[in-house]
Write a structure and sequence with these properties.
The structure is a single chain. Among the domains are: 97 residues, Pdz3 Domain, CATH 2.30.42.10; 171 residues, 2-enoyl-CoA Hydratase, Chain A, domain 1, CATH 3.90.226.10. The protein is 33% helix and 22% strand. It is built from 10 helices and 16 strands. Strands 1, 11, 12, 15 and 16 form a 5-stranded antiparallel β-sheet that branches. It has a 5-stranded mixed β-sheet with strand order 8-9-10-13-14, with helices on one face. A 4-stranded antiparallel β-sheet has the order 5-4-6-7. The N terminus is likely disordered.
């Protein structure tokens, strides 16, 4: 018994020391987060004054960090200050804001204080509720949208800008992960409808990686948010192997909000080239900041042995075409394909996973700028209108 008590005391003492050291690690990670963003973030030109936003609220939150939860809360708020949907944490809380566009079904834009729904995600709670493009988002949680947006930024101690307004409106419309959304929506000046919509985190769909459709010689392959799964390569290869030699092919990227990886994208593009072809340009601001020497390069797609089609596909895109989906779109445009649809998500650059010290907390930060082969920022690419 004495041995057990002695061992328990030793363990307790060790845990107390480790806990103190661990708290110190979290505090150091919180302090270093701002420097990491200043060093690596690729889009300071889109921030007010071209600098990392500062506020007394954020500074106080950073200085209070003493454990993992405190660090994660601060990381969420610090990344939100960038108003960049591509800058997120690798983990989250049950009540964290939904990730946009992956868990959003409304795309909201702002002009002169008016919040308009620019797009509605197909087969979503918002679509089922009859919300349509052009409707206005009047309220969130019973509070007028403009006031909700202002409060979002006041909670961070930051002022309102047009970019911040639109960002916050989309986040608020997507809601908290663990609860329903209460939205007031108005159609063409009519009565305001008060709607209760579930969080998309509670809406689960079992779908195949790809879905094949079309009639006659028209074949459409729809990607079901599967560009991050390497199994999509074999599934796509199989679909093209079964395609008729004279079939017209359409690739539907309108449900790829989570992006993916370049391995899958290059495998898809590789079917349509017979020699190395550039499909996007990368730029690394971090290296220029550190050395004064700019770094930029063209990423190529290469032919795939035994897998080739001469005819380019038609490509469909929209607001839920995100990240690597957008990379595929500009890649096909570089090859000469017709890329049609609405504006894409406009997510900034390529994301790097960065661990904050030894805390286990990771952030996902856009550290590379991405452009079309003609030098246009990927997020500014405008598809052809649908005919």
């Amino acid at each position: 018994m004495r041995y057990r008590l002695g061992l328990m005391c030793m363990v307790a003492a060790a845990l107390a020391v480790a806990g103190a050291a661990h708290a110190s690690d979290y505090r150091a990670a919180a302090r270093s987060l701002d420097d990491t963003i200043r060093k690596k973030y690729a889009y300071f030109d889109k921030l007010p004054g071209g600098i990392l936003p500062e506020s007394k609220v954020l500074n106080a939150e950073r200085d209070r960090v003493a454990d993992r939860n405190g660090l994660l809360h601060y990381a969420e708020d610090r990344l939100a200050s960038l108003a960049d949907h591509h800058a997120i944490t690798g983990s989250s809380f049950a009540d964290s804001w939904a990730v946009v566009p992956t868990y959003a079904d409304l795309w909201v834009v702002e002009q002169n204080g008016v919040y308009t729904i620019d797009a509605v995600r197909g087969s979503s709670p918002a679509a089922a509720a009859g919300i349509s493009r052009g409707d206005r988002l009047i309220s969130v949680g019973g509070v007028p949208t403009a006031a909700s947006v202002a409060a979002f930024w006041q909670d961070l101690g930051l002022g309102l800008t047009p970019r911040r307004a639109a960002y916050a409106a989309r986040v608020l419309a997507a809601g908290r992960r663990d609860r329903d959304r209460q939205l007031g929506v108005q159609h063409s000046g009519g009565a305001v409808r008060l709607l209760t919509l579930p969080s998309l985190y509670t809406v689960h769909q079992d779908r195949p990686l790809l879905r094949r459709g079309g009639v006659g010689g028209e074949v459409t392959i729809k990607f079901n948010n599967s560009l991050g799964d390497n199994a999509t390569i074999a599934a796509f290869d199989q679909e093209l192997a079964e395609r008729g030699p004279k079939d017209t092919l359409t690739l539907d990227l309108r449900d790829t909000p989570s992006g993916g990886n370049s391995t899958v994208a290059r495998a898809i593009l590789g079917w349509f080239v017979d020699r190395p072809r550039g499909y996007q340009i990368h730029n690394l601001p971090e290296e220029e900041r550190a050395t004064g020497i700019a770094r930029q390069w063209v990423e190529q797609v290469l032919p795939r042995a035994g897998k080739h089609l001469d005819a380019l596909p038609h490509v469909l895109v929209g607001r839920w075409t995100g990240s690597m989906g957008e990379g595929l779109a500009i890649g096909f445009a570089a090859l000469g394909a017709h890329v049609r649809g609405d504006k894409m998500a406009g997510l900034n650059g390529a994301v790097e996973d960065i661990e904050l010290g030894d805390t286990g907390v990771t952030i996902k930060l856009p550290t590379e700028r991405l452009m079309t082969v003609t030098g246009q920022p990927r997020e500014d690419f405008v598809p052809e209108p649908v005919r």
